[in-house]
Design goal:
Blueprint (H helix, E strand, L loop, with lengths): L1 E10 L3 H4 L4 E11 L5 E6 L4 H4 L3 E12 L1 E7 L13 H14 L4 H17 L2 E7 L4 H13 L4 E4 L1 E2 L13 H15 L5 E7 L7 H13 L4 E6 L3 H10 L6 H7 L7 E5 L5 H10 L2 E4 L1 H6 L7 H7 L2 E4 L11 H14 L6 H15 L17 E4 L6 H6 L5 H11 L5 E6 L2 E4 L3
Parallel strand pairs: 1-4, 5-6, 6-7, 7-9, 8-9, 9-10, 10-11, 11-12, 12-13
Antiparallel strand pairs: 1-2, 2-3, 4-14, 14-15, 15-16
The structure holds guanine and zinc ion.
The site of zinc ion (ZN) has 5 residues, from strand 5.
Length: about 425
C-alpha cells in the first residue's frame, strides 16, 4: 500500500445537480492506494493516520491530487494533423484530414503514432479516453495494443465510412465494416481495461446499409459503445437532410437505425433544436461537447443551458485533431467560454466534475474511475500550483477552495500536470 499526501479532491456527483457537497476536498489530504492499484481510502490525512502508518508515504506537499482526466473524443489518426487551420468542417476534412488519415495504412507508422499519442495524453493528465481509430483495421490493433501495454482504460473503434469521400480514400462496404468490427471486438473488447466503440464517422459518410449494419452489431454486443458525430456544422446538417430525406432531424437519422441509446456517445450536437435535446435525453445518449475544436472550425457554440434544461447526459472532448490541446484543463476552459457566449449552463466546479467523474460516467465507467471512492481504479494526477508562471501569482492571495480550483482550471495547462499515475503506478513526471 502507498499513501499520497497533498490537497486531495474529487467529486461524487455533478455540483450543478447535487450541490456543493458533491465536491470532496481535503486541504491536508491522503489518497491510500492498495497493492492492486485501487483506492483503499481518501480523506483528511489526520483521520486516516492509523491506516497511513502501515503504508509507504509520498508527500506531494502543496500540490493538488485529483482523479486522472477523461477525454470523451479524440481522433487517433489526427494527432498528426492537430489544429490544421483553415476551412470549415467539410472543407477541412477534405483539405487536411482524409488524406493524412491514409498514412495509417502503414502499420509501423500507426504504432509509433499510438505510442506518441498515449505519452502526450499522459503528459496532459489524461488517463482514459474514447478514441476514433482510422479506417485501417491493423492501425486499430496497434492503438489497442499500446493502450493494453500501458494498462489504460480506453474505448476505441475502427472508423467506418462508405460514401461521399474524396477519390483514393480507403472506405468500407457495409459487409467489410461488419466483418472488421466483429474481428476487432473479438480481439479487444473486455481485454484488460479496453472497450470497443462501433464508430461510423458521421451520417454524411455512411450509407443506410452501413448505419443499419452498425445497429445490428450493437444489438449483438450489449456492452459495446457507439460513437459518432452529429450536427457539428450547418452545411453538414443540410447535406444530411438531403441524403436522408424524410428522416427528420440529423439526430433522428441515427435513431431510425437504432443507434441512439445509453451506450451512444455523440460528438458536437451544436445545431440542435429543443426537440433534438429532448430526444437525446429520452434515449439516454451522451452529448460530448468539443469546444476547442468548435471554435477552431468555426462550427458554433454548444448550448449548455438548453442541454441542462433538457436533462441530457453530457461529456467533454478535446477532439484532437480539430482541437489544439489534449489537456482537459484547456478544454474545460473553452467549454466555460462557450457557456459564457451563450446562456450559461456550465460553471467551474461542474467543469471539474465533467473532466473527471462526468466523462467517466459518460463512457459507462462511473463505478471504476473518475473519483476516489473506495475500490475505484487509482488513476490520478498531481497538479502543481507553481505552473504555468501566472498561476502562483493568482494563488498568492488567500483564496477559498472554489476560487483556487477555478484558478487551477482556468490558468492551468500541461505544465500544471506534474505527475500522472495509472493504477497507482507513476507513468509520467519526475521520479
Ligand atoms: N465529422 C466527421 N468526421 C469528423 C472529424 O474527423 N472531425 C470532426 N471534428 N468532425 C467530424
Ligand atoms: Zn471528432
Amino acid at each position: 500500500m502507498r499513501t499520497h499526501l497533498g490537497r486531495v479532491f474529487f467529486f461524487t456527483g455533478d455540483p450543478a445537480e447535487a450541490g456543493a457537497e458533491a465536491l470532496c476536498f481535503y486541504e491536508r489530504g491522503a489518497l491510500v492506494v492498495d497493492g492492486e492499484g485501487r483506492v483503499a481510502a481518501a480523506g483528511p490525512a489526520d483521520a486516516l493516520s492509523g491506516m497511513i502508518g502501515a503504508t509507504e508515504v509520498t508527500d506531494h506537499g502543496d500540490a493538488y491530487i485529483c482523479p486522472g482526466f477523461v477525454d470523451c473524443h479524440i481522433h487517433f489518426p489526427q494527432a498528426v494533423s492537430a489544429a490544421s487551420f483553415g476551412g470549415k468542417l467539410l472543407d477541412w476534412l477534405s483539405r487536411h484530414i482524409y488524406r493524412n488519415e491514409e498514412a495509417f495504412a502503414d502499420r509501423a507508422f500507426a504504432q509509433s503514432q499510438a505510442e506518441g499519442l498515449f505519452s502526450a495524453m499522459l503528459a496532459s493528465g489524461t488517463t482514459s479516453a474514447a478514441l476514433y481509430g482510422s479506417v485501417h483495421e491493423a492501425a486499430v490493433d496497434e492503438l489497442f495494443s499500446v493502450a493494453l501495454s500501458r494498462n489504460q482504460r480506453v474505448c476505441a473503434g475502427k472508423m467506418l465510412m462508405d460514401r461521399n469521400l474524396p477519390e483514393g480514400v480507403t472506405r468500407d462496404t457495409p459487409e467489410s465494416a461488419t466483418a472488421a468490427t466483429e474481428r476487432l471486438i473479438g480481439r479487444w473488447h473486455g481485454k484488460g481495461r479496453l472497450c470497443y466503440a462501433v464508430s461510423p464517422r458521421f451520417a454524411v459518410a455512411a450509407s443506410d446499409k452501413l448505419l443499419q449494419a452498425c445497429g445490428e452489431i450493437l444489438a449483438r454486443h450489449p456492452n459495446v459503445l457507439c460513437q459518432t458525430h452529429v450536427s457539428e456544422n450547418p452545411d453538414e446538417a443540410a447535406l444530411v437532410a438531403r441524403l436522408f430525406p424524410g428522416s427528420g432531424s440529423y439526430l433522428s437519422v441515427y435513431q431510425s437505425f437504432e443507434l441512439l441509446g445509453p451506450r451512444t456517445v455523440l460528438g458536437h450536437a451544436i445545431h440542435f433544436t429543443e426537440e433534438d435535446f429532448a430526444l437525446a435525453a429520452q434515449t439516454g445518449a451522451v452529448l460530448v461537447s468539443c469546444p476547442d475544436a468548435n471554435f477552431l472550425l468555426g462550427s458554433g457554440v454548444f448550448d449548455w443551458a438548453a442541454a441542462r434544461k433538457a436533462g441530457v447526459r453530457l461529456g467533454l472532448g478535446s477532439d484532437v485533431g480539430a482541437g489544439s490541446s489534449l489537456c482537459m484543463l484547456a478544454i474545460a476552459r473553452e467549454a466555460l467560454k462557450a457557456s459564457m457566449m451563450g446562456k450559461g449552463g456550465l460553471d467551474v466546479l461542474s467543469a471539474w466534475y465533467l473532466i473527471t467523474l462526468g466523462n467517466a460516467r459518460a463512457l459507462g465507467w462511473g463505478e471504476r474511475i473518475g473519483s476516489f471512492a473506495p475500490s475505484r481504479e487509482a488513476d490520478f494526477v498531481v497538479l502543481s500550483p507553481e505552473k504555468p508562471p501566472l498561476l502562483p501569482l493568482r494563488m498568492a492571495q488567500a483564496l477559498s477552495v472554489p476560487e483556487r480550483l477555478a484558478a487551477l482550471l482556468l490558468l492551468g495547462n500541461e505544465a500544471t500536470v506534474h505527475k500522472t499515475f495509472i493504477l497507482g503506478r507513476q507513468v509520467q513526471g519526475p521520479a
